[in-house]
Automatic annotation (TrEMBL):
It is a multi-pass membrane protein. The chain crosses the membrane at residues 29-47, 169-191, 197-217, 229-247. Belongs to the ZIP transporter (TC 2.A.5) family. One of its GO terms (cellular component) is plasma membrane. This is Permease. It is found in: Cell membrane.
Length: 248
């Protein structure tokens, strides 16, 4: 089941990467929806569950929330250190934005490698979430699969942006697509203790929220903020609420 679901992540990453090769406006809608789903999953499913599983306080704050903040900060720091801002801003591709002047292929590869590691964590999160319960697993998988479009898009664009050959970009794209499957499969080998599970999901929630707020949503409105994109985001949140509500 877990690996089967992770195959959805595999396909979506590839779709995102292939979409990066041509201009399409519909990706804004996909990104808007992904942002909403991610926000919904973090706020309505991950955090409540993480609090329940790892809720005891440490220095006056529930541990799950400390890790949530830690996850957010970690994602922020990694992103700043790699300075991958110009990533995936789009359709206009390699010539767009700053950094286009000095192209160091290794920078592109390092950033793409970070995306692969991130995708690996996505996969582990899917597996861990399924260990916490069916609804949890499915909603986290949903959030991962939809934002994988952006993951694939960014992996391909980042690699190309710094002057790497198309073939190399496709190789990184494939690695990023396979990573969630590997990550999810790895969780079949062990059972996480409930507390550790809650901690990991809290941490993952922080990273996921950062990704949604700082990367996915700004990207969704990059060229032109539109009402349909906003509507997709709100729909995404509402959908998660519905799923969580029905499952209760
Ligand atoms: Zn991801």
């Amino acid at each position: 089941m877990v690996v089967f679901v992770a195959l959805g992540a595999f396909l979506m990453t590839l779709v995102g990467g292939l979409a990066a090769q041509r201009v399409t406006d519909r990706r804004h809608l996909v990104l808007g929806l992904a942002g909403g789903l991610m926000l919904g999953v973090v706020g309505l499913e991950l955090l409540p569950e993480a609090l329940e599983a790892a809720g005891e306080e440490f220095l006056g704050v529930p541990r799950a929330l400390l890790l949530f903040v830690g996850g957010f900060l970690t994602a922020h720091c990694v992103e700043r250190l790699l300075a991958v801002r110009q990533a995936g801003h789009g359709a206009d591709g390699p010539v767009h934005g700053h950094g286009a002047g000095e192209r160091v292929p290794q920078v592109g590869l390092t950033a793409a490698a970070a995306m692969v590691v991130h995708s690996l964590m996505d996969g582990v999160a899917i597996g861990a979430a399924f260990q916490a319960g069916q609804t949890m697993g499915l909603t986290v998988a949903l959030a991962v699969i939809t934002h994988d479009f952006a993951d694939g898009f960014n992996t391909y664009t980042l690699t190309r942006l710094y002057g790497n050959a198309r073939r190399r970009a496709l190789a990184m794209l494939f690695a990023a697509a396979a990573a969630p499957v590997v990550g999810a499969a790895s969780t079949l080998l062990f059972t996480l203790p409930v507390e550790l599970l809650g901690s990991y999901l809290g941490f993952f929630g922080g990273a996921l929220l950062y990704l949604a707020a700082a990367e996915i949503l700004p990207e969704a409105h990059h060229d032109h903020p539109t009402a349909p994109t906003l509507l997709c985001t709100v729909t995404g949140v509402g959908f998660v609420w519905l799923v969580v509500g029905i499952a209760e």
